[in-house]
Amino acid sequence: MDIGLRDSVAFVTGGGTGIGRCTALALAAEGAAVAVADIHIESARATVAELTAHGAEAIAVQADVSDEESVADAIATTAHELGSLDSLVLCAGISGLYGRSIDEISTGEWDRMFDINVKGQWLPVKHALPFLRLSSKASVTIVASDSALVASPLHVPYCASKGALIMMVNAMAVDLRGDGIRVNCVCPSVVNTRMPKNDIGLSDDADLGDRYPIHEPDDIARYLTFLASPAAATISGHALVADFGFVGQSSFPM
């Protein structure tokens, strides 16, 4: 099925590793040119090397999503070098602070969580708007979490930041509808990446599959790519929950 991304331009944050890397690969496989943005430029360049080895058009840009000047420069570079901008797929985010009660968290730690997980999703949209408004297939797709809907214990800052994203997606979808810009998010449960392993104190090569039902990063990349595409043209303001159906399960005893 052709989902309509051929000859479009996508900007992917967190594109150097994990879900972001897989999403950059998925978008390129559908014919999009991809700007791989990451705070670690060498990681972004490694993803770009994979893309260009398969004939895709791609560039690496450094971006600290919590810093406005950095984001503005990355967006401007993308539009200049790739000629346009049709979709943002915002995968950059952090966890951490897991297993700590609310009185054990500093103001600085709380602020950093929201700087990256919330402000870091707003800033790319803010600076991409002049380019997205020129596109006939503009979209913004964000990685949220099932922690926006169901709280994991001792994880208040993360859950709060992801919960804020769902309402931000709704509000932006309403405000940008007249510009023809769709805004959606994906809310996965545990994904087999470094981040949840670090949260629970496992090594990077540990197997999560024997502990929880888990997604592979490619799974989430497919959902993000579909929502970013014209194939999802009538979907906006939507939080797609990918959690193996657990959010729908009643607590009523068996």
From TrEMBL:
Q: Which keywords accompany this UniProt record?
A: Oxidoreductase
Q: What is its EC number?
A: 1.1.1.-
One MF term from GO for this chain? Answer: oxidoreductase activity
Top-level class of the enzyme under EC nomenclature: oxidoreductase
Q: Which InterPro entries match?
A: NAD(P)-bd_dom_sf, Sc_DH/Rdtase_CS, SDR_fam
Coiled-coil segments on the chain, per record: none
User: What is the official name of this protein in its record?
Assistant: SDR family NAD(P)-dependent oxidoreductase
Q: Write out the similarity annotation.
A: Belongs to the short-chain dehydrogenases/reductases (SDR) family.
Q: Any stretches that span the bilayer, and where are they?
A: none
